[in-house]
Task: inverse folding
């Protein structure tokens, strides 16, 4: 018999693990001093790595030394207090510990039977989050709906599209179906619709109003035009908190249109949904009791490391009908009796990790009050920043900024805005990204890192002021 | 301004992290004594949890106490040395450390630009794995193809289906397309085809030969029958190492058929593909140089915790054409110049974790030699077990067992086999699952945990002998 001798025994694992925990804590402590945006050129990292894998095992110390010298220069520091790009992606201490425990347990949650706690804690956390965010009761697992953790809002949108497609299957043919979204909706809608077998021509991009939110009158007009030509409006993706400006689509009015035409309403609150942990920001949920499905991402603004995207559905029937396949090797008594949830039927993949642990750790460590104060701190800093940048002679605010994203531009034109962005990003002192509004380049300052304090926002303002 | 005070500061994180590392090491040490299959009833775990989330934060010690008392009884121990169910899912020490580092860095790898090391280390590991497993050069990233890490082989199969659909788009309409697989292929094929907008009626399930492998003559007959009726064979999923019996479909002969009819050939080696780290088992790769795409899962048999499914493609063109959407807020110089890989175009989701770290840690810690010895140890134990169970007067082997899965049945009929399975699983001493072959219930003993030693296999044999 060939003996397998683990190259890292449990004593070594303890030592390496303690060291790595300290490495991460040290990393978080020194984040401020690292250039936020990696400054390497394409191919630099690969060129530093050996062409072939090692024949014999290598000591752990050598591997960690390479993490420092080879990998870290190629990392863009999403946890930096000076990270103002995209939307935040917080990896807080309790969430990292949850991810670690999930990896250590190494269970598969594809079926209730393959690890009951993995399914039941997830169901419980999704119900807790309904209370924490004041979400509609129709998403509670105790009714015909329920919630689950997806890897991303893209996957949630795809599951919603497939459920909507299933609901009209048999009545309408695929080429007759039409999906609707706003010009500022996330690209995941187009990707999901195409994955589901529709063509890009079956997507209507509805114009926005002056606040960059979907115009429900234009939505109705578009649906009427399609109906007249014997097409079937089957799906609408509305957004609460668009990527460009955190605009809030008017869900109630959109729901009225969806109801009249029998279309599925999916609401993408990927970023802004987390704001609802603070009761005074629950305006982001307005109309959500009318939605067929809803997604938001604690892995963006709620201290839980990627991946943790929550997906809620009001009626799980069409979803399970669309996604369930039960081969013999997965049959088991609990599933046959229908007494349990099998989350494999709520997602694209079969396998799944124990992701509820990190959400549980985050909620319990912070409590409802701590989570609310977390988002409040960012909104306060952002509103103050918006006021200052709006009063600056060279900058103008270009859209309403209801939460922690501020969108503005230098009055000198696109090239000037690109120069400012590129200069800041190349300095390593801070990182911000852009978007386009009304065909103009617009700068985005998104405040949401757990490490960001007022002084970091002040420094960002200082950079913008100097470069103006 | 509202101040956010983290409830767990970095000193507390260090202490909690060290304790959790020790908790995991202790867990792995005492795994043998825990009942493998969780013995809780549906609802038990939820009933033990508070109905509402806490208003204030709670101490870390209370949370970990609940992990022990409330969560652990609901866990089925996939890492147990007595876990012989499904296929293995090893969470080895270096892979858990890789997952921990990935969580601590908390970067997004959706674009090269959002963290270059995340993309380049992944590309490099996928190329290393080609050398480690003797995979065809056509999958190297330096040519028109390349590889990436997916969450699961289900997602890899879906990406393959979408790429194949893209390759014939414009020439054929969706309802004309037909996909083919064997009766023992994984359920992910049916799920993927349905997600892609085809109907279950557009899937042909090709009968197997006497070894439960796909019969290429029958595949050709099925394609001819479809062509005659103006349908278009567009996709074949072959399997190297089926879930039921690790049967190996004849890839060369299937590729000949695919070539004649212009169908995309995807090979699913989710479990058995890892065997190729040992040169003497590279028979699992026979014919792979003819495949358009290929998946295998280090998260099954190669010491890397879920999720880590490798997906290779010979021509990335149709995939990127099917999955690429580029909104303004993701535009950047590196992408525009075409100098880099943006893995968001290789997968369903936009966001992605730094999963290459754990694969890098596993390969470097073990070396090529250590990985080979790891799979050898299981094949050796399984072959010995198969010989003993085959010689047992009450059991018979029902299929060839080329690797580390042994499929057999008690000669007393289905009820007898179910009794044996249920008795063992209810005892908590070991966990095995079943499948059906020729409409008969068959027991599966899959040997692949990193903690499984000869004495555990002997104990499993003892249980089967006693219950016979």
Result:
């Amino acid at each position: 018999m060939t003996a397998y001798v683990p190259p890292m025994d449990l004593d070594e694992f303890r030592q390496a693990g303690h060291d790595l925990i300290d490495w991460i804590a040290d990393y978080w402590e020194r984040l401020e001093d690292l250039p936020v945006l990696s400054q390497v050129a394409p191919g630099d990292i690969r060129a530093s790595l050996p062409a072939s894998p090692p024949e014999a095992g290598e000591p752990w110390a050598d591997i960690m030394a390479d993490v420092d010298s080879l990998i870290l220069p190629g990392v863009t520091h999403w946890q930096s207090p000076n990270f103002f790009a995209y939307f935040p992606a917080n990896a807080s201490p309790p969430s990292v510990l949850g991810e670690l425990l999930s990896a250590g347990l190494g269970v598969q949650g594809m079926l209730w039977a393959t690890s009951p706690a993995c399914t039941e804690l997830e169901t419980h956390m999704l119900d807790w989050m309904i209370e924490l965010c004041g979400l509609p009761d129709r998403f509670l697992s105790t009714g015909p709906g329920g919630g689950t953790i997806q890897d991303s809002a893209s996957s949630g949108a795809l599951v919603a599209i497939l459920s909507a497609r299933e609901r009209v299957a048999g009545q309408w043919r695929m080429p007759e179906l039409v999906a609707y979204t706003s010009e500022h909706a996330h690209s995941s809608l187009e990707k999901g619709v195409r994955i589901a077998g529709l063509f890009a021509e079956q997507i209507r991009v509805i114009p926005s109003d002056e606040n960059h939110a979907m115009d429900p009158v234009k939505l109705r007009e578009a649906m009427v035009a399609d109906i007249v030509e014997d097409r079937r409006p089957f799906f609408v993706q509305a957004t609460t908190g668009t990527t460009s400006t955190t605009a809030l689509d008017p869900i109630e009015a959109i729901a009225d249109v969806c109801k009249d035409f029998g279309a599925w309403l999916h609401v993408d609150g990927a970023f802004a949904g987390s704001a609802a942990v603070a009761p005074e920001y629950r305006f982001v949920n307005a109309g959500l009791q009318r939605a067929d499905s809803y997604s938001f991402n604690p892995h963006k603004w709620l201290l839980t490391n990627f991946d943790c995207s929550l997906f809620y559905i009001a009626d799980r029937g069409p979803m399970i009908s669309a996604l369930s396949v039960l081969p013999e090797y997965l049959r088991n008594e609990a599933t046959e009796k229908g007494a349990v949830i099998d989350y494999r039927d709520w997602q694209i993949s079969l396998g799944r990790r124990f992701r509820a642990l990190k959400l549980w750790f985050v909620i319990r460590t912070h409590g409802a009050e701590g989570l609310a104060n977390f988002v409040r701190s960012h909104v306060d800093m952002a509103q103050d920043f918006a006021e200052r940048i709006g009063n600056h002679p060279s900058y103008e605010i270009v859209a309403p900024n209801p939460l922690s994203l501020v969108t503005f531009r230098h009055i000198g034109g696109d090239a000037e805005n690109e120069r400012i962005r590129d200069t800041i990003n190349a300095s390593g002192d801070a990182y911000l990204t852009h978007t386009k509004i009304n065909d103009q380049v617009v700068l985005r300052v998104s405040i949401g890192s757990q490490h960001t304090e007022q002084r970091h926002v002040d420094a960002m303002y200082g950079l913008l002021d100097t470069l103006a």
In short: Residues 10-33+38-75 of chain A form a domain with the dopa decarboxylase, N-terminal domain fold (CATH 1.20.1340.10).
